[in-house]
Request: fold
Amino acid sequence: MVRENGTPSQQPAGTAGDPARDSGGDAARGEAASESAPQEEARRATAIADPATGDAADTTAAADTPTAQPTRSADDAGPGAGSGPAAGDDPATGGEPAATGDARQRRKLKTVRDMLLSMAVITVGALFFYFVQPTDTGQDPVRAVDYAVEASTASRAAPYDLVVPEGLDEEWRATSVRYRQSSDHGAFWRIGFMDPDNQYVALGQADGPVRAFVNDFAQGAQDTGDTVTVDGREWAVHTGGKYDALVSEEGDVTTVVTGTAGAEQLEAFAASLAPHANQ
Reply:
């Protein structure tokens, strides 16, 4: 190349258009690339190091073996971790597996069913026993008592002449007998009977205050002012909402015949009274 002043220009070495320089540059870059490959592998080996020992780890093992993930504790977990139900839990049963809840429900139902079956069996057995038990419809429901021994004992202890019924037929049944030497009404003697019509008739004797005794024993029956004479003995007639009564007074002793029976039965019972044989 000739400059305008006639001096030839010098071409700089290694400039574009020089084949030798181009081929030399390619060779240099190839060598640099070949030299940098081992260095890159070394850096990778250095990066994969054992945290505990600081030694470089086996790059082949690191490449071929999956890295184990560290186990996270409950403290490492974020807020709300572990608060949800576990897999297989039923939120409706408070975290209890659905299968366990169903089994418990079946046990409860079975217990209730067994209880009902037991009650049904007991009820059937009781009804069977009730209906097959033989009954005597003609049996007297009144339990009669024997007042003879009690009357003998009371007649010896009483401070007055004790009276007892005599000559009553078997349809008159004594149901109670009692003597008390000391009571609110003094020495107190009583016998309870059921008459042939299953009406109550009672005999009472006491040597305490008359009005209190009659009011208590005859259940509040009041004196009508009428009298009736039975076998020569005079009785005052009393009537009340619950009991009627015949009242006889002799000295300090008051004798009362009272009950739910009618006047005729009361008079029949009063006619049977006589001093006890031990008197």
